[in-house]
Amino acid sequence: MRLSLLTIGLESFTEAAALGGNSLSRRDLFKTPLLILLALSLSELSLIGLWLFEKGVAERRPYSYIIEWVAFWGGAGSEYPRGVAVDGEGIYVAGSTTSYGSGREDIYLLKYSPSGELLWSRIWGGSSYDFAGDIATSKGNIYIAGLTAVSGRAWSVLLSYDSDGVLLWARVWRGVEGTSGRAVSLDEAGAIYVSGYVGGLPPTPTSPFLLKYDPEGFLEWSWSGGGKADYCWALALDGGIYLGGTRLVQSLEPHRPRKTEFFLTKLDYGGRIIWSRVWGAGVENYCWSLTSYRGRIYMVGFTQAPSRAADVVLLVYDEEGDLKSSCILGGDYEDYAWAVAAGGDYVYAVGHTLELGSSDALLIKFDLDGAPLWNMTWGGAGWDLARAVAVDGDCVYVAGLTYSLDNGPQSFLLKLRSPNTRSSPLESVVLASVISLGLSIWMFLILFLIRTAGLSTSAALDEPRTQDPNWH
Known about the structure:
Blueprint: H1 2-18, H2 26-58, E1 66-73, E2 79-87, E3 90-97, E4 106-112, E5 118-124, E6 130-138, E7 141-150, E8 153-161, E9 167-173, E10 179-186, E11 192-198, E12 207-213, E13 219-224, E14 230-237, E15 241-250, E16 258-267, E17 273-279, E18 284-293, E19 296-305, E20 308-318, E21 323-329, E22 334-343, E23 346-355, E24 358-367, E25 372-378, E26 384-392, E27 395-402, E28 410-417, H3 425-453, H4 455-462
Antiparallel strand pairs: 1-28, 2-3, 3-4, 4-5, 6-7, 7-8, 8-9, 10-11, 11-12, 12-13, 14-15, 15-16, 16-17, 18-19, 19-20, 20-21, 22-23, 23-24, 24-25, 26-27, 27-28
Helix pairs in contact: 1-2, 2-3
C-alpha cells in the first residue's frame, strides 16, 4: 500500500507541471519524494514494530495452543487408556479394552502417526483380566507395565514391543502374589524399572514394590517396602528412583478412622531408600502421577474434604526432598488430576472437571515453579476424562476416554500444538528496524534511478515542448 501511495505522489507532481502548474526542478523532483520516503520509513518502523510487538505478546497469551486433531478408537465394549508416549516413530497409547481380545479385559496398544493416522493396534491377554498401567518408549521399543490374572491370582506383567508392533517378550513377576504394575521407566543404559503395589483395595494391607529388568527383560532385582498401606501409582528416574502414590494413615477424627496423604520416596539405583516425604492438606489426598524434570519432581492428584469439593493438587519437590511449592486449584465443583508431564519450560497436568453430572477432560499448564498459567476443557454432552499426557517439543498429546460418542466409551488421543515463533518486544523492535532500513535502502535506490533516468524529463518540464513534424 505504501508503494502505491508513493507512486501516486510522483504522478501528481508530474501531472501538475504538465497542466501548466509550477514546474519542478531536478532538485525538487528528488527532494520532495525523499521527504515522503523519510515519513513513510518512520511509519513503516512504527507499524511493523507495533505489529511484531503485538505478535510477540499474542504468542504468549494463555490460549495460544491449537487442537491439530483428535483420533478415536474402540468397539462395542469399553476402552480405558492409562498411558501415552511419543518418540521419533510415532505416538503410542496403552490401556485396557473389553471390545477386543479373548478375555474379560485385555491390554491394547495403539500406534499413531504425527498426523493422527492409526498405523496399527495390538491386543494382549488371556482368558481373565489383563490391563495396562503405564507405557514408556526407548530406542525404538515400547514397554507396557500392567497386571495379568492367572487362575484367579494377579501378577505384575511387563511387555516389550518393537516399533512395528511385534511382541518381543512378556515377563510375569511371580515373586509376590497380588502385585499390580502401575508405572514403568527406563534409565540411560536401557534398564527397565517397574513399580506398583502388593495387595488389594482397602482395607487390605498394601506396600510398594520395585522391579529392575535388564534390556532383554531378565529380572535383576526386586524391592518391596514403604508403609503398611501405600499405593504406589507413579515412578520417575532422575539421579535416583522416585516412587509416589497414596498412603493410608490413621486420622485423629473419630468418625473418620483413616485419611490419605501423598507420599514420595527416593531410592538409589540399588534399591536403598534415601528419604521419604508425605503431604496432606485435607482429610483425603490422592497422588496419581509424578514426573522428574530439570532437578525437580512434580506430583499431581487431588485433595478433598467432607465440606469441600475435590481440587487439583500440584506439588514441586527438589532432589533433596524439600517442598518448593504447592498449588491447589479448583472451583465450585469437582476437579481431578490423573497425570503429569513436563517439557520445554512448562508442566502439564490432565484430568477432568465434574459439574452437574457432566464431565469434561481438563488440561492445566504450569510454569516450572508450579504456578498455574491457564487451563482448558474439552468434551461433548457425555462423560469425558483425560487420563494421560506426553510432551514432545511444542506438541502436547492427551489420551483419555469419552462417552460423548454414540457407540459408547471410546479411547481418544488429542494433539495440541503451540506457536513455534515467540518474539520478544526487544526482538520485535530490532527486526522492525532491520525491515525498515531495508525498505529505506530499496526505496532510495528506486528514487536514485528515477533521478538519473529523469534528468531529461525534468529539463522537459522547464522548457516548452515542440512536436516533431515527422511523427505520425
